[in-house]
Amino acid sequence: MKLRNILALGLGGAALAALLVEPSLAQTPAPEAAAVPAAAPVPAKGDTAWMLISSALVLLMTVPGLALFYGGLVRTKNMLSVLTQVFAIACIVCLIWVFFGYSLAFTNGGGLNDFVGGFSKAFLKGVDPTTTAATFSNGVVIPEYVYICFQMTFAMITPGLIVGAFAERMKFSALIVFCILWVTLIYFPMAHMVWYWGGPDAVGNAAKALAAATDDATKKAAQDALDAVNADAGLLFKMGALDFAGGTVVHINAGIAGFVGCLMLGKRIGYGRDLLAPHSLTMTTIGASLLWVGWFGFNAGSNLEANGTTALAMINTFVATAAAAVSWLFVEWAVKGKPSLLGMLSGAIAGLVAVTPAAGFAGPMGSIVLGLVAGALCFVMCSTVKNAIGYDDSLDVFGVHCIGGILGALATGILVSPDLGGAGIPDYTTKPGELVAGAYDMTAQLLTQAKAVGLTLLWSGIGSAILYKLVDVTIGLRVTQEEEREGLDIADHGERAYNY
C-alpha cells in the first residue's frame, strides 16, 4: 500500500475515533469572539484642522475685518474709537465665553432649558483635550476645545456688529457695560434656543433602540427615551427652525439691538444737515474684503466638519455675495445715476448676511436669487426707507444685518426644498444612524421660520431696550455735545487714529 493511502486511512480513523469519544465535536462550531462594545468616535485630523482654520477665519472677520470696515465709514475724528470698541468687545466677550458663556449656550438648563443652559461647564469644567463635541454626521466628532473656540468667535463678533448703529456718539464705558449685559442676557440664550441639541448620535442611538424594540413595553420605553433626547434642545431647535450659521442668532439679533440703540441715543449732531461722509473708503474696502474671506469660516465652518455640505456652504457664500454686490451696484446705478464702491461693498455684506442661515440648506442657484433680492431690498431699506423715517443708523446695521437676516431666515424655509436644489430638512430618525432628507412642507416651514424671526425680534428688541435704559439711568449712554464735536478719539481715548 502506498504511503499516501496509509496516511489517509490513519487520519480518517483518528477522526472517527474522536467522534465516537465526543460526538458533539461533529456539530460544535468554532467559538465566536466576545461582543466588543462600539468604540467612541475619534476626531478626524482633517475635520479638526478645518475647524481650527474656520475659527481663525471668523476672528479675522472681527479684527481686523469689522473694525476696518466700520472704521473707514466714520469720520476721521472717530476712527480710533471704532477700532477700540470692536477690539475691546472681542477681548471681553472672549473671556466671558470661557467663564460662563459656553455653558449657558450649550448645556442643559434644567427647568429653563427651552431658553438657556446652566452652569455645569462654567470655567470649562469637565472639558479637556480628550472630550469631544458632536457635528451633524453620525459617528463624527471634533475636539470640544475646537468647538468652544469656533462658537467663541461668533459670540465675539455679534455684539461688535451693534456698534455701527450708534457709532460716533456713545460713551465707551456705557458700551462696554451694555455689551457685557447683552451677551449674557440676549446672545447666550438665543444661541441656546437655536443651536443647542443632543447631537446626531444621541438621536440616532435612541431611534435604533426604538426600531429594535419587539414588545409593547420595550417600545414604550424606547419611545420615551427618544422623546427625552429630542426634548433636550433649545426652543427654536425643537420647533424645527433652520439657521445654518446665524441668521437669527447673529444678524437679526444684533441688527434689531442696534436699531433700538440708535433710536434711544438719538441722532448725531448735524445729521441731515452736515456732511457725515466716510473718511476712508479704502479702509472700508479692505475691511469688507476681509469680511468676505472670513465669512467662509463663518458659513462653511458651521458644518463643523469637512465634507460635501461644507463645500455647498462655501460655494453659496461665493455666489450669493457676488449676486448681492452686483444687484446693489446696478439698482443704485439706475436710481442715482452712478455706481458707487460703497454701494457694492454694502451689497456684498447684505448677500453674506442673507445667505448665512441658508448656506448649508440652499442650492447655489437658489443662493444667487437670494443674493439678488438681498442687494436690492437692503439698498431700498438703507436709502428710501431710512430717509423717509429719518432714524440715524450710522452704518446701516438695521438695514443690512436685520433686514438681510430676516430675508435670509425666511428664504431658508423655501430654498431648503429639494425641488429647488436645496438639501432638504435634516432627519436622523427615519434611517437611524444616518442623516437623510425628511418630509418637507413649504408652508409649515415658512411659518416656523417666521416664528423664529418674530421671537428673535421680540427677545432682542425688548431685552436690548431694557438694557439700554438700565445703562442710561446709571452711567449715561451718550457723550456730551462738546465731546461729540471734538470726536471720540480724543474725548474717550486721548489719542488719534492719525497724526499729521
CATH top level label: Mainly Alpha
Reading the helices and strands in chain order gives HHHEEHHHHHHHHHHHEEHHH
Number of helices: 17
Annotated CATH topology: Ammonium transporter fold
CATH architecture: Orthogonal Bundle
For the biggest β-sheet, the strand order reads 1-2
User: What's the name of the CATH homologous superfamily?
Assistant: Ammonium transporter AmtB like domains
Global mean pLDDT: 93
Q: Beta-strand level of the residues, as a percent range?
A: under 5%
Q: What spatial form do the alpha-carbon principal axes imply?
A: globular
Q: Summarize the biggest pleated sheet.
A: 2 strands, antiparallel
CA-to-CA gap between the ends?
115 Å
Low-confidence stretches: 1-36
Radius of gyration: 29 Å
- What's the domain count? 1
Overall structural class, as computed from helix and strand content, comes to mainly alpha
Task: Estimate the helix proportion, in percent.
Answer: 55-70%
Could you give the count of β-strands? 4
GO molecular function: ammonium channel activity
Domain Ammonium transporter AmtB-like: 49-498
Subcellular location: Cell membrane; Membrane
Family: Belongs to the ammonia transporter channel (TC 1.A.11.2) family.
